[in-house]
Specification:
The structure holds 2 protein chains of 2 kinds.
Chain A lengths: L2 H19 L4 E11 L2 E12 L17 E2 L2 E7 L17 E3 L2 E4 L5 E2 L2 E5 L5 E5 L1 H4 L10 E3 L13 E8 L42 H16 L35 E2 L4 E5 L5 E5 L7 E2 L7 E6 L3 E20 L2 E14 L10 E4 L4 E9 L3 E6 H8 L1 E2 L1
Parallel strand pairs in A: 2-4, 5-14, 12-18, 15-20
Antiparallel strand pairs in A: 1-2, 3-4, 6-7, 6-10, 8-9, 8-22, 9-13, 10-11, 11-13, 16-17, 16-19, 17-18, 18-21, 19-20, 20-21
Chain B lengths: L4 H18 L4 E11 L2 E12 L17 E2 L2 E7 L4 E2 L1
Parallel strand pairs in B: 2-4
Antiparallel strand pairs in B: 1-2, 3-4
Classes of the chains: A mainly beta, B alpha+beta.
Amino acid sequence: MQSSMFQRIVQAQTDFQEELLAKRNVVGVAVGYKATAQGITDTPAIVVLVEQKLPVAALTSADEIPSEINGIRTDVLQVGRLEAQVTPKDRFRPMIPGGVSIGHYKITAGTLGVIVKDRDTGEPFILSNNHVLANSNEAMVGDPILQPGPTDGGQNPSDVVARLERFVGLHYTTGDVNPPGPTEPDKPNPTPNPTPTPTDPSQPGQAGCDVVDTLIGISNLLAGLSGSEKRVQATSAQAVAQTTGTSTATDSPTVTAQVIANSVDGALARPIDPTMFSSDILNIGTITGTKPASLGMQVRKMGRTTGFTTGSITLLNATVNVGYRTSLGSRTARFDGQIISTAMSQGGDSGSLIVDASEQKAVGLLFAGSASATIFTPIDKVMQALRFVF
Amino acid sequence: MSSHPDMQRVSYVQAKYIDELMAKPHVIGVGIGMKQTGGEITDIPALVVMVDEKIPLEDLDEEDIIPAELEGVAVDVQAMGNFMAH
């Protein structure tokens, strides 16, 4: 197309665009070549995009599209209804499915696994991880849960869709951000990797209260350096920064610490309006039951960051050390009895339900991974710990 | 899996040696799977020791080396990077 011709067409498009877009059925206007039944011609044209082509007889004269505008041919192209591509990071209204962005108001974002039922009352609850719905122990029951999660634009209070109902506390093996729980005799700390200090600038805290938490971290670090036993403590109900003797958050590996293995990183939230939630998972559908994992099993998931992905199970009964970024810095938590698959997740996919590839059966709850593997918890353990059924 | 005698054996060895293995540098996990050879998955049940990265044997202290087998069970070292909460 000659550039002078092109300019003429663009000018005509500009001049008549509003008029064309006002017509019934028109969803767009563009510049292209006229197409006929024989194919695309070399005649430049103003292309009018319509949702559906209608016989001229069915249109009022005002809604008819002229065959020519200022001497330039027009063409009518049926494109159906134009919609923004749905991504799991979107705000879903009026219905929120599983597999999309969600999060406690102080975190970034994770994934809404699926809607489950309370084992005793049958009430619908949102299933995801502790570190998605309960801010890695630092939340209180009743805290607001946003869809989408804060980093995807979820606003408090306009996007509050649920409130934290209950969660399984996480026990960390390094650092001292453990919830109250059973204690075991001291064992040597077997953690192989030194943990960055809470004020490591390369490990920013999570959204929400970064400044305050960093200040707490610095205060604790200073208290540790000066030998003082006074520490500024996090005061939320579930997570109290415990101090033991002269140990600090910068403990060397020679200081004894108990290793409590976790089973589940899980939490439930109570929908504010249960009719807003679909029992379906986006791109997967309805879950009809559960299935135990086995080596080589093909699985799939729908998650906030990587969307729909598949993988195969490579390891069973795995004990693993998993890094967590809490407001007080990086922590390590040990888990046992876990399932490992080929890589099928990234940060933000946590909380995704792992589903068998060929049946609508839940296999696990995704919560961690690396560049080469994804880690999830057997679904029966999650159901037991959080007292729900499908 | 429980019907597979080899898997029971791997499970027994896992329980017996897990604390010792988890205490070694670079070890981030221990699980039950199939031995991999040259990136290919074999049908040999193995105790899989997950490490953040593989280190040449000559750079490791003797006590930090992961044995190739334990009580007749194959031990496979697999590099996984770092596990983070996702």
